[in-house]
Amino acid sequence: MRRIQPTILAGGTGSRLWPLSRSLNPKQFLPLIDGEQTMLQSTIARLSDLNSSDIQVLCNEEHRFLAAEQLRTVETSATSSILLEPVARDTAPAIALAAFQAIANADDEQDPLLLVLAADHWIRDTEAFIAAVNTASSIAETGKLVTFGIVPTSPETGFGYIAQGNALGNGGYEVAQFVEKPSLDTAQKYIDGGKHLWNSGMFMFGAQAYLDELKAFRPEIYKACERAAANTTQDLDFTRIDAAAFTDCPAESIDFAVMEHTHNAVVVPLDAGWSDIGSWSAIWDISDKDANGNVAKGDTLLSDTNNSFVQAEHRLVTTLGLEDMIVIETKDAVLVAHKDKVQDVKKIVDELKKSDRHEHLNHREVYRPWGSYDSIDTGDRYQVKRITVSPGAKLSVQMHHHRAEHWVVVKGTAKVTNGDTISLVTENQSTYIPLGQIHALENPGKVPLELIEVQSGSYLGEDDIVRFEDRYGRAPESNDAEQ
């Protein structure tokens, strides 16, 4: 049996899980279920019992350091690589890139078997999942393109469906039809008939087998991805493709581009406690509840509250007289919504974008390859941040045109470059960086460095940065904050 190449799609913004999920820190990089592993890390962890080769993760350019750090810290015996998408072009092109890369990296002449997974799905029964994957792999070895259909538990209108055709005798079924999201009445008929499965968006097939079908049905996508994958470069932990070639690629899902047209589609039923974690009510559905049907996380006090989801991130949240509600608190935003309306959270995110507000983009606490910073306070001509620098990490050598900075070390030791002077600044000591001064901050120690930064000046935007040297390969001028 050929080894399986797991391919994890880690793009997307997860806007329906705002305010926890943000554009620059979306749901696949958050610990939404167990509070410890992120969704991406959980996806990788459930692959441990597979006969698989190195894990390939596809993510957006702007999420690259989040992905790299989470792959570094997850417990797995497999090695991993990160393939960067310079722009979003949906799943058909993304999987084509993964297929070309898998073939290029194969150490034999066999067609690598791709197991295509989303990074933000939840599966409770790992054993059932592995059994379904093993069934699918034996079918995929015959040249078929396998999709996983979730055995439905309710008449969901938010999912597409797959109609099962004839049984093939190997655990799979012919695909009779792909069906778009149905009405409630139609969904109930699907459940009653027992022949329809939820479309999970997970697949298994030979890399070349997929590319052959893509070339037949969407040659323009195939050609653009072939050009993009033919010119790759390595950048630290990342594989970059030809951005110009990929930008010219049409955007289309694998269902529309290939699966609805191919005669080689097979569906394998999967009954493993699956959820796409597509909304706050979906998280409530799969979470353990108290006697009143509530899910409460963080510092909460619930009174006369039933069948609700309440999550407190940074302060006490109390409720009184609530029924079927969602309450999510973060440092800079609070969501209060009825469970019946959670699919419309995306509308709030759209309004934030139209109003040019930042709350849709990132949290108050922002993660960087060197550590993180938290914007504690902001005024007309000042901004206060708490900066944490990981051991051995260094911010870029940089300067600012419009602001000066005061740094006060509260934990650890800082190695500070201030013009021509390099010095060590320890706990309870401070230093001043004048406007226009070339400077850098480094943690030479073994424990995290924490400091308070006070910025002052006429303009405090994060695009006021000019880099002269950067160990993380970022651009000389950037809107990435404090690097």
Characteristics of this structure?
single chain, 483 residues, six-stranded antiparallel sheet, 22% helix, globular, disordered C terminus
Give the SSE map.
Blueprint: E1 4-9, H1 39-45, E2 55-60, H2 64-73, E3 80-85, H3 91-105, E4 113-118, E5 122-123, H4 126-140, E6 145-150, E7 161-167, E8 173-179, H5 184-193, E9 196-206, H6 207-217, H7 219-229, E10 233-235, E11 238-240, H8 243-247, H9 254-259, E12 265-270, E13 274-275, H10 280-286, E14 295-297, E15 300-303, E16 309-312, E17 317-320, E18 325-329, E19 334-338, H11 345-354, E20 365-368, E21 371-378, E22 382-389, E23 397-399, E24 403-411, E25 414-418, E26 421-425, E27 430-433, E28 439-442, E29 449-457, E30 466-469
Written overview of the protein:
The chain is globular. The strands form seven sheets. It has a six-stranded antiparallel β-sheet with strand order 20-21-22-29-24-27, with no helix packed on it. It has a five-stranded mixed barrel with strand order 6-9-7-8-12. Strands 14-16-18-19 form a four-stranded mixed β-sheet, with helices on one face. The protein has eleven helices and 30 strands. The longest helix is centred in the N-terminal third of the chain and has 15 residues, at 91-105. With 483 residues, it is of the alpha/beta class. β10 and β11 (238-240) form a beta hairpin.
